[in-house]
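tool_call: predict_structure(chain=1)
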Amino acid sequence: MKSYIYHLQLNISFANLAFYKGLFAFLGWSIIFETLDTIGFKSNHNGDLWFVDNSSMEKLDYDKKGMNHLSIRVEKQSNLDQVVSYLKENNIESLFDTPRHRPEFTSAQNETYYQVMFATPDNLLFEIVYIGAK
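tool_result:
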């Protein structure tokens, strides 16, 4: 059997929609569906991400059961540096002492795991990561 992720749905406040549109356009994703309360994005390499308007203001706890973070992989280390610049330009703070290299997450000496983590305006935890040659 073969399987793959078809899509993920994230509930957000559509008051923050411009942030998601800007970020995913910057990352090279395209909008594949949009209504007043739903938007879908697609990359060229995997499943879709769907954002649905939800005005609930429940406090999120990254360590509770459920999804901890969404990770998006980029092809080049320089891509991650571009994302970091984009986040700074848009006043989005990096979290957990990132960007940084995480040698504990690699399986080879000549490989690096280079990440930046940040919270969206809806307090969803995102990671952008480069995994590859140092």
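agent: The chain is about 15% helix and 40% strand. Proceeding to next step.
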